[in-house]
Write a sequence for this structure.
């Protein structure tokens, strides 16, 4: 990490003239000034200007707007930095000191996230593969929906609409939305699904219109998860359910502790993710928006484990859950109910 001096130059907040001169000699004055302009635009969001500027000059990232998270959704403003990583910019992974939720701060702004999903996230050359590889997830969630006696479903973050199409084929009435316009259009054109372009904040959907809202690996991406969960609750009828499939943040925490020894480590969660959930941290938030957590179970599907070994782990975890032991598998599904 580069040293921080006593006096600062206007071009590089917090950096000493000696450090600036060394950087100009190593990278050239024009390159240093260009990155200093980006650093000034970020302002106080960058908490370590020396580290940021050094990484930028080494070409580790390009400028994308970032913001700081000043409070955890649980309400606490106390957190600790676990590690730093690069995803379009220099970001950090923090852990809430009150509830233990892992979250990214600094992180990409909501506008930058939308731009990334529109331009980079989906693979327009192979949309069929997107749905095919997620079939085990679709079957698992359909089992839960049938258990809940659900008829009408809304899928948040539906991508190309493969899950909507799957539900249609199995006799359920399904609609959904996604922020990526190209994927929405593909789903309409090729699958004939009812899919809207946008997010829950701008679609103007009727309250209480659905038996269940499903979010399959999407709650990581929203900048305000409390608001998103509240909008999901608003969409389901009283007694209806919200079904959330999520990666298990226990594994993220383990990797973050290892990467935290480096000034800039590897990303310990998928790069677009803003949150790393566990059943415990999710359980803190749901009551805040009027949702009751009914149960949590290990989620089916593993890309790396054999089917028999995976089935054994799922069965083991269901037994451990009855004893209050945390879920150990890589993903989990949480089922919550709107009581009023």
């Amino acid at each position: 990490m580069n040293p921080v001096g006593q006096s600062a130059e206007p071009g590089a907040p917090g950096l000493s003239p000696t450090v600036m001169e060394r950087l100009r000699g190593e990278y050239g004055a024009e390159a240093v000034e260009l990155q200093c302009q980006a650093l000034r635009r970020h302002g106080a969001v960058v908490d370590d200007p020396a580290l940021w500027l050094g990484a930028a000059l080494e070409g580790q990232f390009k400028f994308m707007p970032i913001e700081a998270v000043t409070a955890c959704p649980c309400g606490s403003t106390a957190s600790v930095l676990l590690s730093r990583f690069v995803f379009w910019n220099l970001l950090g992974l923090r852990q809430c000191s009150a509830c233990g939720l892992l979250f990214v701060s600094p992180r990409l702004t909501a506008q930058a996230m939308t731009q990334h999903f529109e331009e980079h996230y989906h693979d327009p050359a192979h949309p069929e593969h997107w749905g095919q590889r997620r079939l085990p997830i679709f079957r698992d969630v359909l089992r839960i929906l049938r258990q809940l006696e659900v008829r009408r479903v809304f899928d948040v973050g539906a991508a190309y609409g493969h899950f909507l199409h799957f539900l249609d084929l199995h006799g359920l009435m399904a609609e959904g939305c996604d922020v990526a316009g190209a994927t929405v259009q593909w789903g309409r054109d090729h699958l004939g699904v009812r899919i809207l372009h946008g997010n829950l904040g701008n679609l103007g959907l009727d309250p209480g219109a659905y038996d269940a809202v499903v979010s399959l690996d999407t709650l990581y991406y929203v900048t305000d998860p409390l608001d998103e969960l509240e909008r999901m609750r608003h969409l389901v009828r009283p007694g209806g359910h919200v079904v959330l499939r999520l990666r298990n943040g226990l594994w993220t925490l383990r990797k973050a502790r290892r990467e935290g020894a480096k000034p800039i480590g590897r990303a310990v969660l998928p790069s677009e993710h803003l949150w790393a959930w566990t059943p415990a941290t999710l359980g803190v938030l749901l009551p805040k928006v009027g949702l009751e957590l009914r149960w949590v179970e290990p989620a089916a599907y593993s890309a790396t484990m054999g089917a028999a070994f995976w089935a054994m782990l799922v069965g083991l975890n269901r037994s451990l859950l009855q004893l209050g032991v945390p879920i150990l598998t890589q993903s989990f599904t949480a089922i919550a109910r709107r009581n009023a």
Summary: The first helix runs from residue 17 to 27. The radius of gyration is 22 Å. Residues 1-10, 302-308, 319-325 have pLDDT under 50 and may be disordered.
